[in-house]
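Q: Here's a chain of 201 amino acids. Please give me its 3D structure as tokens.
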Amino acid sequence: MDFWQYEKEALAEGHAAVCGCDEAGAGPLAGPVYAAAVILPLGEDIPGLDDSKKLTEKKREALLPVIQERALAWSVAWVDAEEIDKTDILSARMRAMQLAMEGLSRQPDFALIDGNRDRGRSAAITTPHRCLVKGDSLSASIAAASILAKVSRDRYMVAMAEKYPKYRFDKHKGYGTKLHYELLAQHGPSPIHRRTFLKNL
């Protein structure tokens, strides 16, 4: 499988700047959803580049500065828990991805989007695009975006662990682990919890 197949197809169709876009943190009970957009030079060899979910935290952290250095453009954006509660997680994911693309120093004329959705009730991807299921395993640009989004979100949650130490956000990053549910039962939700995700508490 050519990790650049979809970028090559988009460029062959006449697009000049093709970005990959992915998000991290759709499922957690707390914290923002993050998204990243990356334009890589076609065929840029970044050893170890893969879907962020297949990499260790240490490997993701090591790849982040390499991606930032070698990308033609990169951008990270997020939508916070309050906005997720006001809208819905699908809309928040779409808004975060569109914001990431709009934040690129070089505007893409085509985007490769991870997943099979490009619109929620209150937000949609407006950049011309193609959705790729498991795109972070199929496209180098999406894989790079998945790493930027994941590392950026994890770093934010570690910072929140210092602000709200009793929730141990550094341990579970906001995901619904046994420890997280136990701490929620003890302390109730924090200001960064997604209230709409806590209906069963």
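Q: Can you summarize the key feature?
A: The CA atoms of residues 16 and 109 lie 7 Å apart.
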